[in-house]
Amino acid sequence: xxxxxxxxxxxxxxxxxxxxxxxxxxxxxxxxxxxxxxxxxxxxxxxxxxxxxxxxxxxxxxxxxxxxxxxxxxxxxxxxxxxxxxxxxxxxxxxxxxxxxxxxxxxxxxxxxxxxxxxxxxxxxxxxxxxxxxxxxxxxxxxxxxxxxxxxxxxxxxxxxxxxxxxxxxxxxxxxxxxxxxxxxxxxxxxxxxxxxxxxxxxxxxxxxxxxxxxxxxxxxxxxxxxxxxxxxxxxxxxxxxxxxxxxxxxxxxxxxxxxxxxxxxxxxxxxxxxxxxxxxxxxxxxxxxxxxxxxxxxxxxxxxxxxxxxxxxxxxxxxxxxxxxxxxxxxxxxxxxxxxxxxxxxxxxxxxxxxxxxxxxxxxxxxxxxxxxxxxxxxxxxxxxxxxxxxxxxxxxxxxxxxxxxxxxxxxxxxxxxxxxxxxxxxxxxxxxxxxxxxxxxxxxxxxxxxxxxxxxxxxxxxxxxxxxxxxxxxxxxxxxxxxxxxxxxxxxxxxxxxxxxxx
Amino acid sequence: xxxxxxxxxxxxxxxxxxxxxxxxxxxxxxxxxxxxxxxxxxxxxxxxxxxxxxxxxxxxxxxxxxxxxxxxxxxxxxxxxxxxxxxxxxxxxxxxxxxxxxxxxxxxxxxxxxxxxxxxxxxxxxxxxxxxxxxxxxxxxxxxxxxxxxxxxxxxxxxxxxxxxxxxxxxxxxxxxxxxxxxxxxxxxxxxxxxxxxxxxxxxxxxxxxxxxxxxxxxxxxxxxxxxxxxxxxxxxxxxxxxxxxxxxxxxxxxxxxxxxxxxxxxxxxxxxxxxxxxxxxxxxxxxxxxxxxxxxxxxxxxxxxxxxxxxxxxxxxxxxxxxxxxxxxxxxxxxxxxxxxxxxxxxxxxxxxxxxxxxx
Lengths: 505, 361
Hints:
The structure holds two protein chains of two kinds.
Chain A: E1 5-14, E2 17-27, E3 32-36, H1 43-50, E4 58-63, E5 66-68, H2 73-79, E6 81-84, H3 96-103, H4 110-124, H5 139-151, E7 157-161, H6 169-184, E8 188-193, H7 196-202, E9 205-210, E10 213-218, H8 225-233, E11 251-258, E12 273-278, E13 282-286, H9 293-301, E14 312-314, E15 317-318, H10 324-329, E16 332-335, H11 350-358, E17 365-366, E18 369-370, H12 372-385, H13 402-414, E19 420-424, H14 432-447, E20 451-456, H15 459-465, E21 468-473, E22 476-477, E23 481-482, H16 488-495
Parallel strand pairs in A: 3-8, 3-9, 6-7, 7-8, 13-20, 13-21, 16-19, 19-20
Antiparallel strand pairs in A: 1-2, 1-4, 4-5, 9-10, 11-12, 11-14, 14-15, 17-18, 21-22, 21-23
Helix pairs in contact in A: 3-5, 11-12, 12-13, 13-14
Chain B: E1 3-8, H1 14-38, H2 43-56, H3 61-83, H4 91-108, H5 117-143, H6 147-167, H7 202-219, H8 221-231, H9 233-238, H10 243-270, H11 281-291, H12 296-320, H13 325-341, H14 343-346, E2 347-352
Antiparallel strand pairs in B: 1-2
Helix pairs in contact in B: 1-2, 1-13, 2-12, 3-7, 3-8, 3-10, 3-11, 3-12, 4-5, 4-6, 4-10, 4-11, 5-6, 5-10, 7-8, 7-12, 11-12, 11-13, 12-13
């Protein structure tokens, strides 16, 4: 049997970067093949060429043994290549069925489409009501729509781009069951991820890219997570260094019965949340996306101002009625999940972005005038200390890659030495090396006596980073406990909304 | 077969940012020439009279100055507001109300003399412009009513107020029935700054206003606030800038400056309130703000360009009998081409051949 997909010498040059440098590998029929690499290693470029979004400058793509030119995604789908993107393209106000119908190349009567959707769902155990509005669905369910959409075309190759980053452990298991079933039927799967234990659990082969070059093709079951990570980043992996057995100080950030009103149509408000973070402590807030994390961050940062002064206190001072600027003066800095347009302004220079949150704490304003020299110096320090790949403080935030922008934003807040730092998704889409640097900076900040809250959907991150952990579900927060007291299953159940005996706290 | 594709630039292009306004003006000349030729005028001559005569004839320069002054002042205010994505379309109304308030002061102090009368008129004009702009600001921040509609509609109300006042309480007792106010006293008229011309104090004031606004917008927290709210409202909230307060500030600044322009205009060229006072400076200033790239320094240049079309339009009326509306057509074409060209600031056109399409996503 010919290889399902064979890439030979694929090269792609962008202005200033060689994104893919003679990459060659083979995907066999029914094989689950991992594509592994840091951000910027060239994974996305490579799959975009396979899916026809861009064309290689050199090299050959063979499909079932025949050389092909994949002119565009439509041509790719015609060949039998399906793709599930990391960011879903769904209309929230439409139903599942309507969303799928909109994405189909051929016009199919909606009744026929519905029966085909039901058939696919039945076969692969993808439970989903076609008539539900997307806005009411969890992220995991939304992903199922995208998978169903791809499966309706009976693909011979399914490309999955970072599919598990938003799923609970149980949802990940369900997804793997579907993928294994598909592979057993002969469909090849190209699985892009940087979560090594998932690749070990799921994949038959792993191709590792670094800096656009193919580093190794290996059997993940033979490798350790660490050996693969080291191939991925090219050097030895640094562990988080933390002083063992350190004691926590006095309660620093105390949140008492914090609730927010319903803001948007589809937002989940925070409902009666209480927790305490001591000096030197990192509290993790786990949860599936869309369970009130954004409202919690906004309520803590001051973007949403409540009506109870004492609902949030720092060192005993009630800050519940203060706005973001006043809270920053009190020592509370925050990083929201969305980088572009929320934590940073894409059109502004990095220097101007530093003025956004650091102007008061670092004296960048004198009598209403902005001291651009101070902003530039500080920005230069952030770029240097956090190894941000940028031309300098005058580069626009929008010109940075996602990972670099995140490093800049985290650096901008951490170097202000806040006494309380609240961050959401600190390493979302950031490569392993950068993530390790951000984690280390957070741990160091805590060691210096700050109280830190990390809101994340990445359980590995929370378990590695945090001292205590709580789970948010539908706006309610479980009691915080030392992170080592939780089992993965237990966290997963809490994320799914099974609070059990712990709800009373 | 060649195809063209728009491709996002990694950084907004500086060349296009400043190049497209120039290109818009040049294209307007070319298209205007074709358009007026097609309907039977001498198109080349029309473009020449409208765009070149005001520049080549030194006698017209003073007209340029006094036409550009109100456009620059109002355009500066609008560029501040538009930076913050606050769409004050009713500068014409705030300009009229400002002029009416200044007229009120001039009539109350009629017959008196003193250096203080003009400053009081200026303050009254600005305060009235701000007050009028605060109606859309209030409706927007409290009831989320679109400020484009409310500010625009209030313009028509202000025109009616002129008619009422000059036919009723402010009617000139010596005016033999003409609906106009009496001529202002000497102390309520703007002094000429260049003897023998009609260039009044408003012209240097306009340049100073624009320079101050440039400084404020680029160097102060106020300017930063406007820019960040316009560029990324969510980030502005995160940075501690309340949207409500920004809307108020933007409306008050643009309304106040429109009111100041109204005062300068009524105390300068008009020297009395007449039914023909509204000359659409408030609307033309919208074009000025955009052509000047919402940058007060650019607004100075753009104000002069639009003043050229006004002065040139009058020239063309007398020399080649071009209709009065021709000026409006040229101005509208300029705005249209400018906004259409704006896409090139963030995107570039790439030629792609079907077999090897290139480009980053």
